[in-house]
Amino acid sequence: EKGGYASFMLKEIAEQPKAVTDTLLGRIDPEGTLHLDEVRITRGELREVDKVVIVACGTAFHAGMIAKYAIEHWTRIPCETELASEFRYRDPILDPHTLVIAISQSGETMDTLMALRHAREQGAKVLAICNTNGSTIPRESDAVLYTHAGPEVAVASTKAFLTQLVACYLVALYLGQVRGTKWGDEIRTVIRQLSEISGSVDRVLATMEPVRELARSLASHDTVLFLGRHVGYPVALEGALKLKELAYMHAEGFAAGELKHGPIALIEDGLPVVVVVPSPAGRSVLHGKIVSNIQEIRARGALTVVIAEEGDEEVVPYADHLIRIPATPTLLQPLVATVPLQVFACELATARGNEVDQPRNLAKSVTVE
Ligand code: F6R
Predict the structure, then answer these.
(1) How far is the CA of 138 from the centre of ligand 1 (A)?
(2) Confidence class of residue 1 from pLDDT cuts 50, 70 and 90?
(3) Closest CA to ligand 1's atom 11
(4) How far out from the chain centre does Cα 168 lie?
(5) How far apart are CA 38 and CA 8, in angstroms?
(6) Which candidate in 44, 66, 103, 120 could, as Cys together with 56 as Cys, close a disulfide (CB 3.0–4.6 Å)?
């Protein structure tokens, strides 16, 4: 049932282009308009939403962090993303105009379930983004948008994450469409770009051999750091989480802008630092800032592993290892930038002799608080 792959994780990584396509299927019409009629919250209610709160755990939380950038940009509705386990214990401010989005692959995560129950008690509407039909979280929500990743067997989430991102983008774009924000043209363009993105994921998968080789060469290291900015920051956190749970290594993700506020003290000779680079100048003002960060850490001895878009030549002189991803619209870049990090963690774990589908101490679905 692993279909010729050495692990479910490798199989599920490879299934990502299809998972992304399946999650978009039937939701975009040929004119590029979104149809999310399955979301049983009326257009009138969606127009009255004045705050979005996203709750989730682990990898799903990282999808939620990325969703915040997309929702605020395309809808101009304030959005916060919070760990489900923190949310309900701090007496959050919610009312009937708050839309709470609960993201969960399994639909059974107790922390997320408790957060959504708390939100509904306060009168907020809850939309679940979930991969498991008929599970508890969608059953207890006002509405659900299913991801169509298919069953995810490996404990570490991969294809579910990419489809959670797709679902988050769909919700953000749909809110923008329904509310008619000034970004109307951009929204139509992005819907089209989203419908073509699985080809880019495919291309990334086809170029992963150097990433595997690099991972094997780092198997005896103790620590790997990850840096990113904007939507690349949650990608860095996700890369670090994958490495912790699979390779049992010390891995940490930072917002690159925070480097000088502390983490740069960690940089020493030979320390591998993976940097997720935003789209090149012209499209993202952050690009130049990240290039400076790469120079700074390299000057202090870091072994730089740079994930950058094709055509980005500025990073080349400072990259000890360069991982290319296709040029992608800024907000959608996590769909392609995460894939090499999954492959990296999977290969490093294997090189260290770990069982990738069943990492120690972890369970696929966490049904206790
Ligand atoms: C990491 C991972 C976990 C889950 C988290 C939430 O690879 O799989 O961090 O993402 O336990 O699980 P769900 O999405 O089922 O609520």
Answers:
(1) 16
(2) confident
(3) 58
(4) 10
(5) 31
(6) 103
